[in-house]
Amino acid sequence: MITKKCFSCGADKPLEELKKDTRRSFGRMSLCKICHNKKYSEYNKRTRIQQWARLLNWRKNNRQHVNSQSLNYQQTEAGKIRKSANGKVYHAIKTGKIKKMPCEICGNKAQAHHSDYDKPLNINWLCRKHHADWHLNNKPKNI
């Protein structure tokens, strides 16, 4: 078995435990997957604000593209289901059938979250942060 030394932690690791890179010898970096993930996780935390600002700037300068992509998505089957569920929640809030609640996790101002779009009025109330976290780790049913 061929091993290579990780330049970050200094441990000899089998090639399978090193990050892939086809430009390097043996097709692997000199950085193990654990060290690579740690390094880039820290980098992403440090640069998150700059990344977000760059995205917002791009969206502002490419408004027509963003709008056409949004319209294209809304015309797909998944987009129609999601739009219908959101409309039903909006109508239920306006008619008083559903009352807006704070986030179920932290108690801050919340958004309506569907974990199953086939049940549009079965919602959870999550703040923007926890709503985004949920979608990073899960996928709604029937989409």
Provide key terms for this protein.
143 residues, 2 domains, two-stranded antiparallel ribbon, elongated, alpha+beta
Question: What would you note in describing this structure?
Answer:
The structure is a single chain. The protein folds into two domains: 59 residues, no CATH class; 58 residues, no CATH class. The chain is 49% helix and 15% strand. The strands form three sheets. A two-stranded antiparallel ribbon has the order 1-2. It is elongated. The protein is of the alpha+beta class. The protein has four helices and six strands; from the N terminus they run ββββαααββα. The two termini are 44 Å apart.
Quick overview:
By secondary structure, this protein is an alpha+beta fold. Helices cover 49% and strands 15% of the residues. It has two domains: 3-61, no CATH class; 80-137, no CATH class.
Q: What's the topology here?
A:
Blueprint: E1 3-5, E2 12-14, E3 18-20, E4 28-32, H1 33-61, H2 63-74, H3 77-95, E5 111-114, E6 123-126, H4 128-137
Antiparallel strand pairs: 1-2, 3-4, 5-6
Output the helix-strand order. EEEEHHHEEH
Helix content: 40-55%
Strand content: 15-25%
Quickly count the helices.
4
